[in-house]
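Dear support,

We are seeing what looks like truncated structure output for some complexes. This example has two components. We would appreciate it if you could run it in full and send us the complete token output so we can diff it against ours.
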Amino acid sequence: MHSTLKLTVSHAPFWHNGSSISSKSRNILLASLLAVIPGCYQYGFPAVGVVTMSIASAILWELLINFISRRPISVGDGNAALIGMMLAMMMPATTPWWAVVTGTFFAVVIGKEIFGGIGANPFNPAVLAMTILMLSWGALFDFNAALLNYSFDFKAVYPLVMSKSFGASAAGSFSLMNLLQGKQIGGIGSTCGIGLILGGVYLMIRGHIRWEISISFLVGIFAAALGFNWLNPELYAGPGFHLLTGYTLIGAFFLATEDSSSPVNFIPMLLYGLFGGVLTVMVRNIGAHIDGVLYAILIINLVNPLLDKIRPKAIGKGV
Amino acid sequence: MTIDVDGESAQTVDESFKKVCQAPSLENARDFLAGLPGNPEFKVFFDTEKPVKAIVVLGVDDDLLSTTNQYFVKNNIIAVKTGIDLLCKIVGISSAILIVPQHLEQVAKSSGAIIKTVDSEYPSAQPELITRHILETYEDGQSKSKSGIAFFSAEAVCAIGAAYNTGKLPLEKTVTFVSKDGKKRLVSVPIGTPLQDILNEFNETLNDGDRVIYGGPMKGISVFSTEYPVQPDTDIIIIQDKGQITERNDTACINCGECVRVCPANIQINLLIRFLEAGQYEEAADLYDLYSCIECGFCSYVCESRIPIFQHIRLAKHTLDSMKAAEDTNA
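Here is the complete output from our reference environment:
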């Protein structure tokens, strides 16, 4: 007698811990809202426009590439939406639509898809795109000029410009409490310190980002800023200022931790973050650019494969 | 619970074994006892390049959910002792090492063997890890990899003892049966019993798309028919409902590194899998530690992309082994 029962047959293991790329993307998107919603509240509808435009166009670019390269539709994993969100978080609320769409093109197509899609990109796509935009249309992303028409109840000057031009005393005119609460100008989702920290802590606890990278990145910034401040307290701002301004927090929790472009072993993760943090402060204090986070992250992305060679021996190999 | 064979002549006595069982030796153990419950392996004793230095009896189960071997240590330590003594005698080794989980250490002491405990956490009970972590202090300082270690399950040891003492070959296999609702029961069945008989006994019904696993959730195999018989080494049978099954897919590795951090063998799986997916098995073996894998299945369990990493690894090893075998015959 032949049974017609059809059993599922597959390879071990037969359990899975339930994680997936889409749930990871969803969680990071949710965590980023903690910073994006205060940003949208601060800058009003133009900010909402930039965020939605960025997410939507990132998804469409990925869809287009899926069709052109005849590969399975991959927008469902949420990675394109995430890239769009990250990019929007770094942009000022006044960014014109064409710059947003160009930005997501650079991020999704140049930053990710031409390398083979998710997991194959050597650089963080959003950081790469933002750097290209800033170098190409500097005036659009000069926060002081871009946000000129807004009136705020706090000091509406980009803090890093102040410290760069006028030294530590200018940096001292920003109270750390205000900076933490997001009372500073900057990218839509990169100024609200509290939101970014809460989101980052949530992601670290849930294991969606690797805490080693975030913490060592912040430690690197703290240590380097402290060192500079100690050398010349007049010229260089203290560590608290560096930790709460520019792209520091979004960089530590959302950008440097991108999976594909960061190491996976313990010591390399620490070195990667530390190096990024120190580099950031060096660019800010003695480099030509105003904020060093983006360049620092691109450079640590570059050395990531090298760092990841520091690894424990597999069992049975060498003694 | 016990499932019996129908009819009266449940077991015919093997006369030729009865003749030799008065004088136990390795040769007749190899000839007669290979298919006993617990699947004892005597081949290692005949490998002249790697003389067996130690007998290790596993009173632990090497996969999750299974309690078969622990059951024998807990409830039948005397039979385990009988088996160990007999085994030591025929092999000519003074004492065996009995591996048990911590909570059974006291019970196990009465066996007279050297007791070593392992963590109850998976995958500490894998023979590879036991060799590495527990047997590190080796009396005469000889390298572990050079000398052979014979592994026996507690059940196999009991069966060997019973076979020589009674002159009858035991056929009852103890199996941990896990039904769809997650309930765990121990059942004693003759080797060769089709799955359907066990299902009937427990009133378990299967539907299309369900999964039946022989062996544990991490290392077992899924079978395609309810006629599949209980094997000498089937310690556990698991029934999974269609809804409990996670689908695998072929998304690329996203380099999240979960597998690397969970791997007990310290393999860089994020790099290894790239070579395996491309079919570059030789590079994988030479550069990325393919053969260090102890096959615990953790990497597939945690994979965010849900890549069947474990399957890729086994496929690679199998392909390389068969290539090597082909080369050897052609040489």
